[in-house]
Amino acid sequence: MTLQLGVLVSGTGSNLQAIIDAIEKGELDAKIRLVLSNRPDAYGLVRAKKAGLPTLALAHNEFSSREKFDEKLVKSLKEAGVQWVALAGFMRVLTPVFLTAFADKIINIHPSLLPAFPGVNAQKQAFDYGVKVTGCTVHFVDQGVDTGPIILQGSVAVKESDSLEDLRARILKKEHQLFVEALSEISRGHVSVLERRVSVLRAT
Ligand code: GRF
């Protein structure tokens, strides 16, 4: 099944780029119906335009509440024909307005091995803690912050010589692979959820 995808970004959009590239290479069966950002200056919007994709910038601070902002997000995504939502570095917590409209169809990439180091600056949290292994997690989004059912995780070893930036870059590379892989498994109908345990019937 071709995923009818909406991608939400707040920043540089390298994960968005990985999705665009995978679709172009035929590695991911998806169509990006809309790239949406809460930051009009997000470089992710530039990447989307370069790829010829429809974009929309909605500055969250121009809305009177989180719910009003989410109502507009939902309306825009639905009008564009979006059925699945990928949060690719989207730095806003979504309200039940959004979660209900796209129930069980929202996935997020987080740069740590959840449940360790949720929230912002996960790479720095892991680096400062001194863990030897960290990584990234693709998960369904629920009402908590980075608490939803885990689809895939990828590990990244921390080297003694690593700076925070070295580690961040290696995690980001892993994120690009993992996010595409998770979306691809979803498009193949290989992902199912029972309570909070996700089963991924991997392609061979
Ligand atoms: C990624 O590390 C993602 O996990 C986090 O924000 C970063 C976004 O990077 N939530 P990019 O905008 O995809 O380059």
Q: What features would you describe in this structure?
A:
The chain is α/β, with parallel strands linked by helices. The chain has a single domain, classed as Rossmann fold (3-Layer(aba) Sandwich), CATH 3.40.50.170. It is built from six helices and nine strands, in the order βαβαβαβαβαββαββ. The protein has helices at residues 14-24, 43-50, 66-79, 96-101, 122-129, 164-187, and strands at residues 3-9, 30-37, 55-57, 84-87, 106-110, 133-140, 150-157, 191-194, 197-200. The strands form two sheets. A seven-stranded mixed β-sheet has the order 3-2-1-4-5-6-7, sandwiched between helices. A two-stranded antiparallel sheet has the order 8-9. Helix 1 crosses helix 6. The longest helix has 24 residues, at 164-187. The radius of gyration is 16 Å and the shape is globular. 5-O-phosphono-beta-D-ribofuranosylamine binds next to helix 1, strand 5 and helix 6.
